[in-house]
Amino acid sequence: MIATIKIASPLFIVREEAQKDFFGVLEKLAAIGYDGVELLGLYGHEPAAIRAKLDALGMVAMGAHVSITELEEQPEKTLDAYKTLGCQYITLTLGGIAATPNTPEFAQAAARMQALCRLCYDNGFTPLYHNHAGEFATSPDLLSAYMDACAAERLCQEPDLGWMLYAGADVADYLIKYKDRTPVIHLKDIYAADFSKIGPSVDHKGIKNSPETGFFEFRPTGYGLLNLPKLMPLCLACNPAWFVPDHDLAYERDSFEDLRLSYEYVKGLLQMMC
User: What is the per-residue pLDDT for 97?
Assistant: First the structure.
């Protein structure tokens, strides 16, 4: 089972580089060893051209984070693009809306999610829900609320373990609770000396090492506070197809060097567990 798990690179951390030279970014990720990428848009390229580049590099487009509005307004065009790319997963995120479970606003949001899940599944994609930190500010939490509301529509979770840690959620609990609905796992890693000061959201402008924010910072996978060796058996019990060693910022460091450190850590940990 471990030997079949593939590792995809996130693109958020190299979003600026991808805007300038997307194919150059793909070449660098392939050189590190990544099996695929999780897309955040097409960076001005045609789907067929991206597919050809990935094929030439021996990589795949694992899936894509897709705009809810884009998917609702142009479903056929949007999904045809990701079919061309060979994506297996479509990640949907409705957690940013101001909705609390057991309210009319949440019922409306869940209905949107259900419709989008059916649309994705009917077109051959597995719909995923990717959490951030805000999902855990409500009771019950939004992640569980959406997963439970959309169980019949085959919604799976794409848990971001770092954001769970950031929010003070029990990471192990979600891996256990939805172990049969977790094909992709984001292995974000973070650090903070004082979690009581980090607040509900993160400044993505590259500010770190501030006492006002508890010295919070993103770190390569394996270099922060996420206890991945302890969590890995639970991750593996989910029988995932993909790991994404995700983090959002490299600060003054080189983003590709951070991605290399993350890749090598995850790869090494998997080899140790074989």
Answer: 63
